[in-house]
Every structure is written in structure tokens, then in C-alpha cells.
Amino acid sequence: MTTVIIDYGSGNLRSAEKSFQRASAETTGAAIRVSADPADIARADRVVLPGVGAFADCRRGLDAVPGMVEALAAHVAAEKPFFGICVGMQLMASVGREFGETEGFGWIPGSVQAIVPADPTLKIPHMGWNTLALGGTHPMFDGVNEGDHVYFVHGFHLTPETLAHRLATVDYGGPITAAVGTGSVFGTQFHPEKSQAVGLRIIGNFLKWRP
């Protein structure tokens, strides 16, 4: 069993790799690899797509790797587990509206738009710890409790067309999407690799998840 964390020039790969290795040692013992090779994605049992920065930049980074987007699409079409983190989650949407419009993967129909808090004194980006409100049960949140804290750094968020795809929110001058999912795809706006025990629990759940 192999989990591949995709290297396409975006994301805190070292921190993510260490967190996934630690969670693997405590759960399945599965191999964790960082790779920029689409052939590795084709062979992987699970794929993780991290991302930091702007939606359009991350999409361009993926498009610049020959065969990468096609390998991701084939992985999801095969209903293998996929985990998007931060902008990696946002790319699951239909479109990102940051510095213009950029096409996403369309796995979670909806758009990525700027956070506009009802309270104008709240600073953007939304940065730091915030409290999870779970939208129901999901295997990725096994052992995670309502009110647990996770770590965010972002100025945009995904608004899904189907509310059932929004698995968790946080309050920041109104509800902000914290996690989405459907079928074999799952994503968090927060950084599990920076969210201490809660984040490790979610990563461990992903390594065991069989959609």
C-alpha cells in the first residue's frame, strides 16, 4: 500500500511528509512517497494533493507537469482515495475566482471565492486556530469531535453547490468551508499537518479509509 504526496512546486511537502509518515507508523505502516512522476500516481493506492498560494498558480503548476492532471483524473475515476489540502482542496471545485477565473477539476461542483466576513474588523487572510463544526458523520472524522481546533491560513474558500458536500465549517464572521468530500475524494481547507493530534487523527483515518 503506497500513498503518494504530489510534488508540483507548491505546498509544505516536508511537513506533510513527516506527518503522513508518523500517522502511517501509528496505523497501517503504508509507504509514504513524495513524487512529481505521474507514473507513481498511477500506481498509488492513495494520493495527497497539497497546495499553498493562489489557485491559478497551483493549477498552472499541475498543468506544467506532463500527464499529471490526467493521472489525477484517472485516480479519482478509479475511486481510489484522494486527499486535497488547502489549495489542493480548492482545486477540487469547478472554478477558482482569484485573480480572474481558473478552471478547477469539478469533482466538488462549486466555486472558490474570497472570504468576506460579516464583521469587517476580522482580518483576511483567516489565519490561526479555529473551531470545527462537523456537518455529520464521515469516516475521515472518526475520533474527531465537534469543537476540536485545527489550523488555517487562507483568504479564499470553497462554496459547494451541494451543501451535502460540505462536511465541516468554521465560523469567521459567518460559516466558512473547512472540509468537503464525496465518494472517494476528500479535502480540508485547514492544514492537518499543522493541526497536531487532530490533524494526525485525520491523516491516519485517510490511510485506513476505504470509500
Q: Can you tell me about this structure?
A:
This protein is α/β, with parallel strands linked by helices and 211 residues long. The chain has a single domain (2-208), classed as Rossmann fold. It has 6 helices and 14 strands. The strands form 3 sheets. Strands 2-1-3-4-14-13-12-9 form an 8-stranded mixed β-sheet, with helices on both faces. It has a 4-stranded mixed β-sheet with strand order 6-5-7-11, with helices on one face. The radius of gyration is 16 Å and the shape is globular. The two termini are 15 Å apart. The model has no long low-confidence stretch (mean pLDDT 95).
List the helices and strands and how they pair.
Elements: E1 2-6, H1 13-26, E2 31-35, H2 38-43, E3 46-49, H3 55-63, H4 68-77, E4 82-85, H5 87-90, E5 93-96, E6 102-103, E7 108-114, E8 126-131, E9 133-134, E10 149-154, E11 156-160, E12 166-171, E13 175-182, E14 185-188, H6 196-208
Parallel strand pairs: 1-2, 1-3, 3-4, 4-14, 5-7
Antiparallel strand pairs: 5-6, 7-11, 8-10, 9-12, 12-13, 13-14
Helix pairs in contact: 1-6
